[in-house]
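Structure ticket #2291
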Amino acid sequence: MKFRHTETNTIDTTDIIRVDSITIKTEIDESPDLSYLDADNDPEYAHDNAIRLRNYRHGYWHCVGIWAECQVSYSIGGRDRRMESFQSGGLWGIESDSDQSYFDEVAQEEIAQLRAHVARFNVDMDSFDRCAKGAKR
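Resolution: structure written out below.
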């Protein structure tokens, strides 16, 4: 792959920063806070929580983090564009066997958070909204 150097003095500062894609990312949470499963936290559910914790330790379920990421681009001269990425803060410690509706809800919250974040950088929000409708997983 060949790369071409573009002079920085040719940057068009009037160019709109557009969103090219939005992706929902999921990654295993390697060190989740499982203290809510401690027997001392809720004695009424101590037995159920002990079983849940044992199942976690045996790998029947795990925790994940979910965040939204978007790729934006702007002109750096002619047809060349520079790409940057932005991410939402993410939510971690989500149980992998949660209902799909909960994963969808978190994804929408992360997109909303990302939208507020990129708006501060004068990004074209129409392009954001178009990409958000078709966000990939």
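Closing remark: The first strand starts at residue 18 and ends at 28.
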